[in-house]
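Wed. Picked up where I left off yesterday with Cutinase. The coffee machine is broken again, so keeping this brief.
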Amino acid sequence: MGVRPFGFAAAILLAATLEIVPLSTPSIPAASASCPAAEVVFARGREEPPGVGYIGSAFVSALQSKVQVPVGAYGVDYPADVDPTKGASDMSAHVQSMAKHCPNTREVLGGYSLGAISADLVVALANPGFGFNNPLPPGADQHVAAVALFGNGTRRVLGPVPEFSPAFAGKTIDQCAPGDPICSSG
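Structure written out below (tokens, as returned):
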């Protein structure tokens, strides 16, 4: 499997986002010392081994090299077979748990291929739908610093995420390599 050259460019964009968006909010209570300042929550591509996957690993490494804060990583726990809803449910549950236990941690959601579709469900659906039953509650978007999608199959049907998810529009990159049959029309 070839790795697409998205990680570095996306990391630069997200590093800029993390510098613009404050890493803590004064009205949020203090978090545990074990909480990272930022965390990448990444859903790997179809049939990749558990963890953040190849693209996710490159993305996390590139982001860590560009920001001056500790960056954690969470590999979304799902089978990465054909159903993105289990990934979306785990991603949403993790973001909600981090918001409760590490309220100052800025979450960077991401995914590659099928994992990008899982992330789409999390950022696009405010109500249960399409088999996804754990949407983010109101206000949870305030814990999300950025969204990074790579090879996103939903893009072919609905367009890039910023066009159909206004709450995340200003903090989302939706990368598709020219000619990629998964995310482009040609």
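Quick read: Residues 1-13, 15-31 have pLDDT under 50 and may be disordered.
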